[in-house]
Amino acid sequence: MSQITAIHAPFIYFKENPFTNNDPLSSIHYEEDGLVTIENGHIISATSWNSGRATLTEDTPVDHYPNQLLMAGMVDTHVHYPQLPMVASYGEQLLSWLNNYVFPLEARFSDQNYAQHIAKSFLSELLRAGTTTAAVFCTVHPESVNAFFTESTKLNTCMVAGKVLMDRNAPDNLRDTPQKAYDESKALIQQWHGTNRQLYAVTPRFAPTSTEAQLDVAGTLLAEHDDIFMHTHLLENKAEIAWVKELFPHRHSYLDVYDKAGLLRPRSILAHTVHAQEEDFQRCHDTGCSIAHCPSSNQFLGSGSFPLFQALKPERRVKTGLGSDIGAGPTLSLLQVLSDSYKVAQGLNTSLHPAQGLWLATVGGAEALGLDHQIGNITPGHFADLCVLNPAATPLGRIRTENANNLSDILFALMMLGDDRSISATYVAGKKVYQKASSS
Ligand code: GUN
Ligand code: ZN
Prior knowledge:
The chain is an alpha/beta fold and about 450 residues long. It has 15 helices and 17 strands. It has helices spanning about 50, 95-105, 110-130, 140-155, 180-190, 210-225, 240-245, 255-260, 280-285, 295-300, 310, 335-345, 355-370, 395-400, 405-415; strands spanning about 5-15, 30-40, 40-50, 60-65, 70, 75-80, 130-135, 160, 165, 200-205, 230-235, 270, 290-295, 320, 385-390, 425-430, 430-435. Helix 5 (about 180-190) links the parallel strand 9 (about 165) and strand 10. Helix 3 (about 110-130) packs across helix 4 (about 140-155), helix 5 packs parallel to helix 6 and helix 12 (about 335-345) packs across helix 15. The protein is globular.
């Protein structure tokens, strides 16, 4: 018989979507002294300690986190693992930033050993930040994908990733062709999609670096595999948008370039979408695709302010998650991304409630990836992918938390002041994969 394990801690889970509730906090269930039991990597129950403790036997291992907060592991819906070594590179906007910093580094990922070394560091940093699932760009090299999924498999993390497709407007050593894109992606799908917890995304980088023939290949791959993902960038930067207009003069809009190639459907992830018009949001809603909101990256590159509350308009809601977008984003911590998200929303005269923020970082991200039946909440039957938060992890956090008088205030302070130091432990499928050293 398999071993039952347990976590004894205050916990939160979401009963409903706080964006459709006039009182966002009431969408959270808070258990002040909680017990979560786990078996075979899945959550079995989530109750109060008092009502559940009798179900434990003397030899049930119990991890105890008093005065902390257990919630679902966070979900990063857009990030580039190969860009980890060039994070925080100075002074450019999107297109020159790609040419000057990103492409020279991505060329190194033809070397599987280097790719595996960076993939390992990336996954370790992700778990240290409390993130347990991510949608991840690799590079054009199949080696970069093999390296990433190999490292993810060792940790049993659920990851969505794929080989980047680029057949123009990129250096020679980063270009493939439509045929190569098809053959290599097809082989990777067959090798990795649905292997353990690994999931494949067809990944055309963005419209400027793919010919129409290559985007059609991406559409063909999606048509041949109903349950795979699509991952790309959209409407991030004004110069990029003008370039797409030049390259695709016969298309009605940037989104239409992807639409005509058959790329828009559930599990299609569009990163940024900063400069979307109402008709773009409507089309995303109609086709069921998702947006990755990347406020830290958008601020870092000066790309603009994504209108989150417009995207989430209840009558034609577009599924939206948060993206760190490393290396344009300077942090993997979705708590820091939430802090930026709050500030960007304020600039647009909207306020992101902490219940809404933490929902975006967990359930919203899982929903954007079509994985909300498996991850993103503390729900019996879900994978036990979890993180333990400590609102008082830093001297400032401690002072602020002592002065907080309700759950909403504590969660908001965590969202504004928290970072990787706020993560005490991270669990993947019930196994503790990160424990913060007590001295740090
Ligand atoms: N658009 C095309 N490629 C990239 C990339 O690597 N990062 C970001 N932020 N935008 C892109
Ligand atoms: Zn990106």
